[in-house]
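#onboarding

Welcome to the new folks! Below is a worked example of what a typical request in this channel looks like: someone posts a single protein sequence, and someone else replies with the predicted structure as tokens. Don't worry about understanding the tokens yet, we'll cover that in week two.

Example request:
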Amino acid sequence: MGKFKFKADKDGGFVLPPEGTFDLQIVEAKPDTSNNGDPQIVVKVEIADGPHEGMAFRQFYTANEERGWALLAMLKATGIDYEMAEGDEGEPSEFEFDPDDLIHAYFRATIVLNRNEEKKKTYINLREEQASTLSDAGEEDEEEDAPADEPPPAEEEKVDEPPAAAAKSSGRRRARPRA
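Example response:
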């Protein structure tokens, strides 16, 4: 397992990310169970660009009737494939996806900090999830990282063919004259 690192203030306290809209990258995703016994996905996200690049925090996406919309919004924003099956009449729909598909996915969201004075906690919430333009950049990077030992594809030299040969090579049959 890799090392866990986070930004801390001089007293060792967790440094909260700033509020605002950012491109985020998912770096970890694992299935878990909430304190209420509901299935959830714990996702570690990092701010992917700008002066706060690399700042990480966790999001807990609980899959229940109350909070399932947040998980679905994140899946749609990342473009991750999921299957959805309509429930029987009066029953909720079910959806399924592979949490490993989330790793390295990008999305854009607005970070909102909500302070609960009673519990003396600040909660990091994400709103307005949408596709990130960095998703496209990541796909281009993958192409650039192709193994160097593979030769580039050979360019085909175009040669003008006589019309009869061109018709034969196109795979189409020429009509025969009727007698």
